[in-house]
Amino acid sequence: GAVVSQHPSRVICKSGTSVKIECRSLDFQATTMFWYRQFPKQSLMLMATSNEGSKATYEQGVEKDKFLINHASLTLSTLTVTSAHPEDSSFYICSARDPVSEFYEQYFGPGTRLTVT
Amino acid sequence: AQKITQTQPGMFVQEKEAVTLDCTYDTSDQSYGLFWYKQPSSGEMIFLIYQGSYDEQNATEGRYSLNFQKARKSANLVISASQLGDSAMYFCASQGLNAGGTSYGKLTFGQGTILTVHP
Description:
The structure holds two protein chains of two kinds. Chain A has strands at residues 4-7, 10-13, 19-25, 32-38, 44-51, 57-58, 67-73, 76-81, 90-97, 106-108, 112-116. Chain A is mainly β. In chain A, strands 2, 4, 5, 6, 9, 10 and 11 form a seven-stranded mixed β-sheet that branches. In chain A, strands 1-3-8-7 form a four-stranded antiparallel β-sheet, with no helix packed on it. In chain A, strand 7 and strand 8 form a beta hairpin. Chain B has strands at residues 2-5, 10-14, 19-21, 24-27, 31-39, 46-52, 60-61, 64-69, 74-79, 88-97, 104-109, 113-118. The relative contact order of chain B is 0.33.
């Protein structure tokens, strides 16, 4: 299957700083990428849908100024958590949709565990 | 719009036995796809099986099978011959497709079921 990478896998940052997470589709071109947030033992919560070359579509309740998403190329999307606070600590997962896959499958990255101290 | 319900927060099964994880869905889309994912403690999302709404046969992938009952709007996952490595969180998800199948909605996830396999 297709491979999606995410970097970094873990990051610890101080309150008030910004953190950038990268999501790359390694062997296919992804016109659409998705960013999810997950708290322990809970489901994935979709934060935003990112289309290459256009502005991301944020889900209701997600602060677009706090979670900046850029999808600059067909293989790279980035999520920047600005002015991070301890409540932003979470597991962030990206996925990329392969437009030519048999059933419009989303391939998931391995996730990034963010801890804000 | 899609909604997925997984009513079993936790399930236990003895090694080598079969287990069924429940999933019901609600959708206004005429065409849709149903997915099951496994998430071990490492956090990665592992795709297990897919069922299209117009597929007449239940999907099977190795030890995984999907019991699709369209009239009841259920898409239960059956794991046969459970292994210790099957212990993980399992998510049911759905995705809508338009009539032409050329555009598609986002994935909607259920709450998840934590499966524990006992030796």
